Amino acid sequence: NASIFIKDHIRKTNLDYSKYFSTLSSNEVYFKLENTQITGSFKIRGAFNKLLSLSQIERDKGIITASTGNHGAAVSLGMKILGINGSIIVPENIAPNKVENIKNLGGTVEYYGNDCLEAEQRAQEISVTTGAIYISPYNDPVIVAGQGTMGVEIDKDLSNIDTVIVAVGGGGLISGIGGYLKTVQPKVKIVGCSPKNSCVMYESLKAGTILDLPSKPTLSDGTAGGVEENSITFEICKRIISDFVLLTEDEIAAGIRNGLEDHHQLIEGSAGAAIAALAGAFW
Fold first, then answer.
1. How far apart are CA 159 and CA 14, in angstroms?
2. 244's torsion region: left (phi>0), alpha (psi -120 to 50) or beta?
3. How large is the angle between the packed helices 232-240 and 200-207, nearest 10 degrees?
4. How far apart are CA 283 and CA 264, in angstroms?
5. First-to-last CA distance in the chain?
């Protein structure tokens, strides 16, 4: 069980009641505060689940991964704590503060490409040539199971959930949360959301196959970029996502502002996207 496996390395984050949206919508609305998680995002869950699963022989080979920021920070901290060497490939357009976060946690950064998919392909090439263990940000059942520990916590804190809204990039988080919650609360509706500027999973689900599409810059940089060919998350998303919301940059910015002004939470763009998806019916 991933929850037991990683519990000494992550924080159980609060499920925070939103008076603002509960009043506005006449529902009971809660935010899962993964912005207060170690390294500032949910990615630490999957990263530790994967790193802890590696044998000593695999750890000795070193790690190679790719990230737009949060996954890289999580893997960096995991490597530091577990004494593993490795590098993080990041796209050229990565947010500078996210590079600093990775470096501050001890990670070695190399730049390549213009989005996460190109960085992932480069990391896989390095893995083949050097023997380092490649860790996907989302296309790995162990990573997905780690992200799914959020679903375990949500289920323990809240019964009879109607709807869960999750920001979607490669689909690891929504696959983990939705995959778990659908087994314990089968009636729950799983809603994905992405920026209109980068909605590869949405377009792929609509087309019935994973597409290779360009992405424009977006405030929701944590969900930006493509989806790896044959990603396991595609089939899971096909099965569990009931609805999908696409958001403009202005809507995402409004979501970020709401997080700060009405919920006193400093959040990044992908969380702003989830708030904006929720707010769409009420604002």
1. 15
2. beta
3. 70
4. 19
5. 40
